[in-house]
Amino acid sequence: MSATIVPLPPNSSSETIAFLRRMASMVSGRNGEMLLRAAALIESLSQRAMTAERLYHQQQEENKRHVELREAAELASDAMVSQIETLRAQLADVIAAAAAERAAFDAERGKLLGLMQDAESHIGKLTTELDTLRASVDNFNETVISVPIEVLRLARAQFDYLSNGFAGSGDVISQTMSEIGGFAIDHALTAKKSAGPA
What pTM was computed for the model? Predict the structure, then answer.
């Protein structure tokens, strides 16, 4: 509950004090002293009332400033809370997107690793088969016999035909063996051309 301040009329206390002091000078003894004491008391109370009124007005201004600062702080706090909530939502979206991308990456990586392992296994098998075929070719070369060039050319054409047929059916091993046979005949024909006529 706020107190109501009623300002004193101007010069009322000073006129009263002056009047009491004049009366005290005309009255002697205890009454004069009482009048002087009353004048001093009124003067002291007037000073205190003016000081209290000034302090009250200062306090009102200070309270008004505090209310304005509090309202500004509440607005700033509400804005910051809203901004923090927005940033939290954005961060949650970014984390979810990153997790989804990571999961997709891991799945793709797993597929690629599986394909790579399959490819390595397939390459290992093909390398073993190729080594076996080379050994067969080497054994074959050690037991070479003379064959007319026309027969070699005919055999070369036959190997090409077989290789194309195996390629169409997906039989890689037979295709590779046919190609090696063709290359062996090419090598024999090239060696014959380099050697020239006997």
Answer: 0.35
